[in-house]
Write a structure and sequence with these properties.
α2 packs across α3 (about 125-135) and α7 (about 215-230) packs across α8. The model is unreliable at about 85-90 (pLDDT under 50). The chain has nine helices and 18 strands. A hairpin with a 2-residue loop joins β3 and β4 (about 30-35). The protein folds into two domains: about 1-35, no CATH class; about 35-340, TIM Barrel (Alpha-Beta Barrel). By secondary structure, the chain is an alpha/beta fold. It has a nine-stranded mixed sheet with strand order 14-13-12-11-10-9-7-6-18. Strands 15-16-17 form a three-stranded antiparallel sheet. A two-stranded antiparallel ribbon has the order 1-2.
C-alpha cells in the first residue's frame, strides 16, 4: 500500500519511510508528513522589492526565510544549493512560528516572506508562521512557482496576504525540458489568486536566452495575462545568470528584457518591469491614467514618490493597483542577516 502527497501535482506515491522528489515530505504510517517542520536555512531582512513585489508596501523591509527541497527540478535554479539539499545540513536554524513572528516585530519588518525554496512543500509550517505573524500585524508573503494542487492552493492562500508567482515559461515544452513539470497547474494558481482570493500578487518571468525569450512566447504570455488576469497585475521580466546545470547559457542581455517589456505594454498591461539590471525606466511605476511617474526605482532603490498615502496619483487622482500604507519605507537595497534568538531592530530599519 502506498500513500500519495496531495499538495503537489506530482502526487508522489510513497511506501513507508520513502520521501518524495522534494525530499522533505515523506510517508510515516498512512500519512505524508513534513519532516522539516520548524527548521530553516536562515533568516534575512531584504527590501520587499527583491521578492519582487513593487506594489506591496514599497520600500519596507521583509523578513525572509526558507527551508530545503523543492517540487520542481529547474536546471537554471539560482538557489540550487538550498533547494536540492538531500540532507538537513542546510537547516541550521530552528524556529517556532511565534519566534519568527516576534523576530519580525523586533527587526521592524512589515512582512515575512516564505522564499528561497517553494513554500508549498512546507505548507503546514508556512501556514502556522503566517497565522502567528498576522496575529501581530505582520503580513505574510509567498514567493512561489505556483506548482500546487487545488486543495493545497485553497488552504495555503487563505493564510497569505501577498504573493509573487514565478511563471517560468509559457509552454509545456519549457516546463518539461527544464523543470520536469507542466504549465497548467501554474496557470490555475494564477487564475485562482485573481478570481477567488483577495491576495495581492505579482508575476515574475525569468528570461533565459534561447529557451523562453522569443517574441512569440512573450506575446502569448502577455495576451493571456491581460485576458485572464487583467491589466493591473504587475509583470516582472528578470535577467538570468548562469547557474546550476545551465552554466554555459549566457547572461540575459538587458535588451531582451526591454523587448519583452515593450511587448507586454503593447498588450495593455499597465505595470511591466525589468529586473536584475540597472534600468530606471523599466523598474519604475507609472500612472495608468495620466502617465505620471509614481514610484522611481533603480534596482531595489526607490527615488521618486508621487502617490498619496492610500495609493492615488497626485496628478490625476487615479488609484494605483496595489497595497499602500503611508509614505514609502527607506530600507533601500540592504540585505541584513538575522539571528532569531537575538533579533533586534537594525539601526537603519524602515
Amino acid at each position: 500500500m502506498v500513500a500519495s502527497n496531495a499538495t503537489s501535482p506530482r502526487e508522489c506515491k510513497l511506501h513507508e519511510g520513502q520521501r518524495g522528489l522534494c525530499f522533505v515530505r515523506g510517508r510515516q504510517g498512512d500519512a505524508i508528513v513534513l519532516t522539516t517542520y520548524g527548521r530553516s536555512s536562515g533568516f534575512c531582512l531584504d527590501p520587499i522589492q527583491k521578492k519582487p513585489l513593487n506594489h506591496f508596501l514599497p520600500g519596507t523591509p521583509i523578513l525572509s526565510f526558507g527551508t530545503a527541497g523543492c517540487n520542481l527540478t529547474c536546471k537554471f535554479c539560482q538557489n540550487w544549493d538550498i533547494l536540492k539539499s538531500r540532507g538537513f545540513d542546510k537547516l541550521a536554524h530552528e524556529a517556532a512560528p511565534d519566534q519568527i513572528a516576534e523576530a519580525a516585530v523586533k527587526t521592524g519588518a512589515r512582512s515575512v516572506a516564505f522564499t528561497y525554496n517553494d513554500p508549498v512543500i512546507f505548507l503546514e509550517y508556512a501556514v502556522d508562521v503566517a497565522d502567528a505573524c498576522r496575529a501581530r500585524g505582520i503580513k505574510a508573503v509567498s514567493v512561489t512557482a505556483g506548482y500546487m494542487n487545488h486543495p493545497a492552493r485553497v488552504e495555503f492562500y487563505d493564510h497569505m496576504d501577498a504573493a509573487n508567482v514565478d511563471l517560468k515559461g509559457f509552454t509545456d515544452s519549457f516546463y518539461g525540458r527544464l523543470c520536469s513539470a507542466v504549465l497548467q497547474p501554474v496557470l490555475d494558481t494564477l487564475r485562482y489568486l485573481k478570481h477567488e482570493t483577495n491576495v495581492w500578487f505579482e508575476i515574475t518571468n525569468l528570461v533565459i536566452h534561447g529557451e523562453n525569450d522569443t517574441d512569440e512566447e512573450f506575446n502569448a504570455m502577455s495576451a493571456w495575462i491581460a485576458e485572464d488576469l487583467g491589466p493591473d497585475v504587475p509583470l516582472h521580466f528578470t535577467a538570468f545568470h548562469p547557474d546550476h546545470k545551465m552554466r554555459d547559457t549566457e547572461h540575459t542581455p538587458a535588451a531582451a528584457l526591454t523587448r519583452a517589456r515593450a511587448i507586454a505594454l503593447k498588450h495593455g498591461l499597465h505595470h511591466v518591469y525589468t529586473g536584475n539590471v540597472h534600468d530606471a525606466a523599466g523598474g519604475s511605476t507609472y500612472c495608468s491614467g495620466c502617465g505620471t511617474g509614481l514610484i522611481g526605482r533603480d534596482w531595489h532603490q526607490l527615488s521618486t514618490w508621487n502617490l498619496t498615502d492610500d495609493g492615488h496619483c497626485i496628478t490625476c487622482g487615479k488609484r494605483c493597483a496595489g497595497v499602500f500604507s503611508g509614505r514609502p519605507g527607506t530600507w533601500g537595497r540592504k540585505r541584513v542577516p538575522v539571528r532569531l534568538r537575538a533579533a533586534q531592530a537594525p539601526a537603519a530599519s524602515a
